[in-house]
Amino acid sequence: MPQRRLFVTTALPYANGPFHIGHIMEYIQADIWVRFQRMRGHEVHFVGADDAHGAPIMLAAEKAGQAPEKFVAEIARSRKQYFEGFNIAFDNWHSTHSAENTELSQDIYRRLKKAGLVYTKPVEQFYDPVKSMFLADRYIKGECPNCGAKDQYGDACENCSAAYAATDLKNPYSALSGAAPVLKTSEHHFFRLSDPKCKAFLKGWLEQPGRLQSQVVNKAKEWLDGEGDKALGDWDISRDPPYFGIRVPDIEEEKYLYVWLDAPIGYLASFKNYCGKTGRDFEQFLQDPGTEQIHFIGKDIIYFHTLFWPAMLEYAGKPYKVPDHVYVHGFITVSGDKMSKSRGTGISPLRYLELGMNPEWLRYYIAAKLNANVEDLDFNPDDFLARVNSDLVGKFVNIASRCAPFVTKWFGGKLKGVELKKESVLDIALTVKHAAPEVAAFYEAREFGKAIRRIMDLADEVNRFVDAEKPWELAKQTGQETRLHIVCSEAIEAFRFLAILLAPVLPRTAELSAQMLGVKQFSWNDLQKYLGQDHAIGAYKHLTSRVDDRQLDALFDIASVPQATAPQRHAEQQQHIAKEKSVSDIVTIDDFNKLDLRVAKITRAEQVEGADKLLKLTLDLGGSTRTVFAGIKSAYEPASLEGKLAVLVANLAPRTMKFGVSEGMVLAASGAEPGIFLISPDAGAAPGMRVK
After folding, report:
1. Staple 111 to which of 256, 316, 476, 541, CB 3.0 to 4.6 Å?
2. Nearest C-alpha neighbor of 316 from the set 180, 468, 483, 112
3. pTM for the full model?
4. Cα-to-chain-centroid distance, residue 85
5. How many CB atoms lie under 10 A from the CB of residue 343?
């Protein structure tokens, strides 16, 4: 397969606040695609940046009592926790408020002007008499001149997506002061987007097969082919002071480039900054015909990315190049409702992390819901819990937890060479291997939901194979050692192939799986070979836990922390942990000696039909056995417990339950964070020993 050179970006978030779940959804989508391409051996450069200019930034900084430069710098420092928290692997994160962006934006402006596509003319512009400033489009509101929707901003309608001049709004008012704005004349700079050569270029660019989704092409062509008052107009690319942005070059008068001119150039600025750090030639990379430039964006900014952006790049000339693909996604809703923090239908990514929720749960769920169309994605808490618990724990992880312990316990951790075996016709690993090209095609096309469904269908097949072969029964039968070895090795190979297929979505789980399987890391080429005869794997380790519905309740419990900032929420969490750690009432040594704590070996662990939290444990106390029902089902698969040592409260009165009699209690630890951790004696302890 020829190696591709990919330059990939996501839309630039506005640097006036923390990330919301829509940002994280887009970053996860792009990150999954990027990780897949890297696993295929392609050269990928994944960059992003903060969109740090414009009147909203200036006004937000003013409200915060800070200079705009300091304001956006503090926002930038907060980004790292999100990227690390959700395993999003940007190669570089930069800012449009940078030397690189100033240089490139002014260069592109000069090139467009030299090409005859920039001109000036006087413009009547709204002016706020209370704030004593010209109003940026986003600070003027009124009724959309196209559809009549109320409270629309002065540059584009969120209801019908029409773009227009602020002066076209009906019944305008200042969003800053509420005052009726007055008109003043100012000289503005325009990009001649309506030029016939621009329109001809854009028509050809839009119609290039595979460049854009069909829905996006159709929408862009509506704007491009509009007539009368809907005809494609020239683009006002300058703003008057006061304004936080990049100066229009080569003029004495103080004018600034409109934020939507310099914002997409921030993609290139971030990449140029990255090239400087890594010793790459920025211009040579862009001019290379083999370089693919790819953008992931939301459907609300199609207009800028499919008309202004490619036209700017085309007529700026080399080394700049037009995008090869612009991949557009929809919005994210919660249980069918638009995001709203006040109604409890918003998801704070930071709160998600602070609650200790596994970021790979969210990565998996988003992947399972995404497709290549411009469709909204709905987060349903019940569906989230069911998918994660059923798919990740009940199907995928279940394979390793049921089979790996037999390999380590019975065969010294060594696999039987699946591809060399002649005594069996088992081929479940081969079934998974043969499905890899289909899954790869889904990933390439951004049909992540289809990829996930196919992978989980394969996981179901592997689990049916394990259920049919019953390794736990083979382990009890004399003369079935070879069969047991083959079955478990086959299942482990199938699990490894599944882990490789899921690695773009679950990078951390894939890393843990690779460590357990005794390999450095996964690549797509690993699907072509088996681990081989006598390959040593490690002991099974916990890969992921189930979602606790209490975590979901806390995630949407807006009333409990209605206005809490991130630091405040963190402080509350630490106070809760401190309470967990506080020491209980003092007891005497005589009180403690009343407890008969014994080392016990778990000889068997079983699911309890009809019980949500319990596992049935059979314990060896060094000559006698006990049956204990333990509430650890959410944290452990039964097969992973067999052979482990535990601590038993041996003189606890038996308790009759509807599932049977529990003859004691095993000790486990838990805290404010989710998770249950079985207390296990150190190596050398033997069943029956007294814990003192």
Report:
1. 316
2. 112
3. 0.78
4. 9
5. 11
Task: Name 153's bridge partners.
Answer: 141
Task: Judge whether 20 and 349 are in contact, CB under 8 Å.
Answer: yes
How many angstroms separate the CA atoms of 184 and 240, rounded?
11
Of 325, 278, 270, nearest to 90 by C-alpha is 270
Rounded alpha-carbon distances, angstroms, from residue 353 to 75, 361, 453? 18, 11, 26
pLDDT at 572: 35
Beta-carbon count within 10 A of 130 CB: 12
Low-confidence ranges of the chain (pLDDT < 50): 342-343, 422-423, 425, 561-585, 672
Contact 243, 55 (CB under 8 A): yes
* Alpha carbon distance 343, 337 (integer Å): 10
The span from the CA of 500 to the CA of 488, in Å, is: 18
Give dist(CA 143, CA 126) in Å, integer. 15
- Helices 309-316 and 196-206 cross at an angle (nearest 10°) of 110
Measured distance CA(96)–CA(245) in Å, rounded: 9
Residue with tokens 């956006």: 72
Phi, psi (rounded to 5 degrees) for 163? -105, 145
For 21-31, b/e burial (b = at least 16 CB within 10 A) is bbbbbbbbbbb
Place of tokens 């295929």: 40
**Integer angstrom CA distances of residue 483 from 314, 429, 460:** 65, 16, 21
Distance, CA of 262 to chain centre: 27
pLDDT for 564 equals 38
136 token code pair: 């940026």
For residue 52, CA distances in Å to 56, 76, 133, 261, 264 come to: 9, 9, 20, 12, 11
Q: How far is CA 600 from CA 164, 633, 651, 665, 689, in A?
A: 75, 19, 13, 11, 8
- Match 């990514």 to its residue by tokens: 349
In sequence order, what are the residues at sequence separation of 6 or more whose Cβ sits closer than 8 angstroms to the Cβ of residue 611? 629, 633, 659
SS3 at position 469? helix
Contact predicate 418/429, CB 8 Å:
yes
- Contact indicator for 287, 321 with CB cutoff of 8 Å: yes
Helix (H, G, I), strand (E, B) or coil at 619: strand
Q: What is the pLDDT of residue 562?
A: 40
- Nearest Cα neighbor of 15 from 93, 84, 103 is 93
DSSP string, 23-62: HHHHHHHHHHHHHHHHHTT-EEEEEEEEB--SHHHHHHHH
How far is 128 from 259, CA to CA, in rounded Å?
Answer: 20
E strand spans, 270-321: 291-298
- State the virtual CA torsion across 301, 304, 310, 316 in degrees, nearest 10: -140
Structure token digits, residue 692: 């003192």
Q: Let me know the angle formed at the C-alpha of 681 by 679 and 682, rounded to the nearest 5 degrees.
A: 130
Question: How far is residue 354's CA from residue 356's CA, in Å, rounded to a whole number?
Answer: 5
- Please name the residue that has the structure tokens 């312990």: 405
The Cα–Cα gap between 100 and 105 comes to 8
* Residue 675, pLDDT score: 66
Neighbour count for residue 580 (Cβ, 10 Å): 11
Coil vs helix vs strand at 239: strand
